[in-house]
Amino acid sequence: MHHFLGSLLLLLPAVCLAYAAFPEPQAKSACPASSQSALQPTTEHALLQARAGTWDAVIVLADPAGGEQRSAATLVTTKHADFHTLDEFRGTLMGMPFAGHGINGYCAVRKQFFTLWTDSTTPSPMLLYGDYDAKKRELVLRGECYGMSGKLEPCRSVTRLVDDDHASWTLFRSGSEGVEQQLLRIDYTRKR
Questions:
Q1: Residue 27: which domain range?
Q2: Are residues 50 and 132 in the same domain?
């Protein structure tokens, strides 16, 4: 039921646009004026779109001995209209080929950033929502991801925008024991 209502809410702006394009001569619009503003790109969308480009990536995993395992990868982020970006990630993880795809955006209704991610290591998508702290230059997203238990577990990602050409992304999970631990970090440098 919630998915049905959520879908209706997401469709409201499109229905309002269609209704406005073909108004009846004496009908009053049932669409609130704010639905029109939700269809315009915001500064939050511009923040995401500025990340479009090709990035060299280094995946950093902690190994059991306390050291780090590093592997190279590439992230290509493209603009998707004026609202979203699409990610294509390719590399190796623990010596095996790794591929992932994501869609990123800012939901003007929820007033939150979001990402939907799928990759070659897990059967379930990761859906995260959260906020950007401009002073810290950090985007913190929370949601659920496929865990070691074989179930969905709480997870959190932190993206630090170092500058226009450097960023880091860290993924944390909270397993059945409820203790948060870092799974991995990816350091990015924009290709020039």
A1: 2-37
A2: yes
